[in-house]
Design goal:
Helix content is about 80%, strand content about 0%. With about 325 residues, the chain is mainly alpha-helical. The protein has one domain.
Amino acid sequence: MLKLKFLTQNPSLTGIILIISGGFIFSIQDVIIKYISGSYPVHEIVFLRSLFAILPIYAIVRMEGGLHLLRMHNMKYHILRGLLMFFSYTAYYLAIAAVPLSLAVTLFFCCPLFITVLSVIFLKEKMDTKGWAALFSGFMGVLVIMGPDLALTGRAGLFTNHYGPFLAVLSGFFYAVNAVCTRKFGIHESGSSLVFYPILTYLLFGGLLWMAIGDGRFATDENRNLAFLLRSWTVPGNRDLFLLLVLGFVAAGGTYCLSQAYRITNASVAAPFEYFAIPISVIWGYLFWEEVPKGTQIIGILMIVAGGIYVLNRKRNQG
């Protein structure tokens, strides 16, 4: 009880703990999706992941107090948030299927940089010249990471083989917009509603994509991202069905942690701690696929993390 009371009285610390927990939980999701991405279309994974998430979400709702917590205070916000999350995660899944895990995760982590910029614009949070310089360094880190791939493939080769790097950055932007919207409009929404309605959106749009392109008539092998998107639905075997079930529980737990974090604490404080997922992705990539970050990628990672840490320290000093 004492520890829980301490966390309640320290929303910034609670938010940081939730961010780190959510990042680790979602790293498990990344491994599973990359593993099965060669066998199933992304919309099937999104649909089944969301379907299997309903049970753990129900448990979360009961834990928080009951179904009345699903009552919406701002329906337009929930609709917007659901769409943003659907676009973000779909783009992210497409990215990790085509590029090394650590590369996709690192490029996705332009999102805390976007969050900070959007927080200044829409939440009226303060940022000085040094803070902007740190953000510039972080965005330059994104370009440093992408540089070798762009140079090796060229524009034509990159767009022919996959859109992975760009999808990862796009995913980060959508995620950032969602995070800032949660801070601005989700303050009165329960954690249960912040988990339930996005999952419902994934289920709906995953099902719509299934009906539209799930028969595989648009399938192609020329582009890895398009292959993952347009592949026909396949009935999963027992092992893959279990992995999809795990994805459902991961989706519920990870989404709850991140939603709660941005609901109870300042976005600029919480965001830099999402970088915890980067070293985890490097470890998973090496253990499962023998992926080793390139020297330029490591430099880019350090630039991104350094920019985020500086912004965090400036925010603490201002507080």
